[in-house]
Amino acid sequence: MKNYYILKTFCRKIFLVGSGNFWYENGEIGDDSVIYYRLFTLMLFLAYGSMTALEIMAALVGDFPEDEKSDSITFSVSHAIVMIKIFSVLLNKNLIKKLMYDMIRVCELHEKDSLMAEKYRIMKINIIAYTGTVYGSAACFVFEGLRKVYEGSHFVTVVTYYPTFTDNSVMANIIRILTTITLFVMLMSMIITVDGFTMANLIMYKYKFITLRHYFEDLRDEVERICEMGNSEMAAEKLRNGLIEGIIMHKELLRLGKEIVKAFGNVMACQLCQSSGSAVSLLLQIAVSEDLTFVASLKIIFFVAALFLLLGLFLCNAGEITYQASLLSDSIFYCGWHLFPAHLPRGCHLRKIVSIACVQAQRPPIMKAFKMLELTYATFLLVVRGTYSVFALFYAHQEK
């Protein structure tokens, strides 16, 4: 029941951060249709939307110093994409409920405790590393704001159109503190509702293929054991039934892959744009600015690291799905059909089933962004190199 526990825990945390009830079992977590919860959700998203709108206004028409203007551009682009990702998940709530039910059910009877423990450990490492990088970046923005206060300026983390740079009133400082709190809450919603949830589903789906591969390997061992006992008829029947069950599970997994793309494809596509676009802007700040402080440099480095870490986790886990699925054909081929002579009726029948299963397994699922860009290791390297190339081009232009 490890998958059940993981997904239910995620849904409970998603409910607590105000994004609604994504769990498919009624009455297990909470009711997101009651008036007080709807008001809570509305207040949160009004705060997120207002902050993002003010950031966009600051980037377009605000009058700020160079460092704050750069921060306003970076934050406005990043937070606008974050809002798109959150709403993309919320709009697919019913689809995600069904996806989770199917994710738990497929291959459930053949999941091994050791494999589930490994999956849980990998999932925790990925999410903790990403969360630490995101909040490390946010903490650096806060420290930079406190440094400005120490030097006689005002505290600022999120640069918004109001308050203006010259406004040091009590109300202006309260607004700056409130936007900082809103930023931290928004980051929590982003990590739990969108990024962490997407990552967990990708890792879980990857381990479904590993489970299925182990299923065929165990089937071969069981068939060989029965053959050694001298009961070839029983072994052939066991292999035939096992192959049919495995083919059905494989078919369900392929369908599940399409559902994952429908539910989280927009999230991964948006992250592709955010990581490449924002990274160029952030790297240029480090390269061009001459009076950048250590903390200011650190906040940019953490920000870039968080963007590329998340993109890497998305693309590498998606690429790992394709890789693990591609290994399935070998496991099917060596399932034990060769133990039965071809001239026997059952031997011929088993060869046909194995041939069909191998052909199906030789077309592994490939996650795609925008229905055309493959989400693989190669794509991640391509994005990193492309981002650096664009940065180098802009930097060379600045130097002229």
Q: Can you characterise this structure?
A:
This protein is mostly helical and 400 residues long. The chain has one domain (2-399). Helix content is 78%, strand content 1%. The protein has a two-stranded antiparallel ribbon with strand order 1-2. Strand 1 (368-369) and strand 2 form a beta hairpin. The chain is elongated, with a radius of gyration of 26 Å. It starts with a helix and ends with a helix. The mean pLDDT is 89.
Beta fraction of the residues? under 5%
Output the helix-strand order: HHHHHHHHHHEEH
Profile the largest sheet: 2 strands, antiparallel
What's the number of structural domains?
1
Number of continuous helical runs: 11
Explain the layout of strands and helices.
Blueprint: H1 2-16, H2 35-61, H3 66-91, H4 93-105, H5 113-150, H6 170-228, H7 232-288, H8 294-326, H9 328-333, H10 345-361, E1 368-369, E2 373-374, H11 377-399
Antiparallel strand pairs: 1-2
Helix pairs in contact: 1-6, 2-3, 2-6, 3-6, 3-7, 4-7, 5-6, 5-8, 6-7, 6-8, 7-8, 7-10, 7-11, 8-11
Features:
two-stranded antiparallel ribbon, 11 helices
Short description:
With 400 residues, the chain is mostly helical. 78% of the residues lie in helices and 1% in strands. Helix 2 packs antiparallel against helix 3 and helix 5 packs antiparallel against helix 6.
